[in-house]
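Structure ticket #2291
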Amino acid sequence: MADDIEIDIDDLSRRMEGAMTSLRTEFSSLRTGRASASLVEPIQVDAYGQMTPINQLGTVNVPEPRMVTINIWDKAMVNKVEKAIRESGLGINPQTNGTIIMLPIPELNEERRRDLTRVAAQYAEHARVAVRNVRRDGMDQIKKAKADGMSEDDQKFWSAEVQALTDKAIAAVDSALDAKQAEIMQV
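Resolution: structure written out below.
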């Protein structure tokens, strides 16, 4: 009976990868001085009585390195989208030409770059906390299995497996943070 007790490492791994996916999404919304379509993803517009993402109201393109364009499908929504972009806190001043909204990406100054690296560090810390919470859940599963009759050797084995998975996920978070901070600080 005690020999068939196992810890679901695949589930723990999947949940830790979910934290990394979330981190990558948050990092993609950080402005680095280069244009990216993901820059406008978090912006919601009050359209047709509900909050709608911009990419559901028009086509988002990046025609050049410092320009994002949004081709709004419904002409009545142009002003609402423009207002939402202004109020989003991106620090970008949209320019409208018919149904096309152009977002010129200005150069980042040194102070703003440092602020963005601090924001990136906060995002990474949230991801580390999420990974550690998954680790704690795994260790709790091991404790429960020990109470159900898991041998001490198996307990040590599974604890080492969970810890190795955690170390790998934390290293991935740190690596992603270093890459994003280097990208932000690049002039």
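Closing remark: Residues 34-104 form a domain with the Gyrase A; domain 2 fold (CATH 3.30.1360.40).
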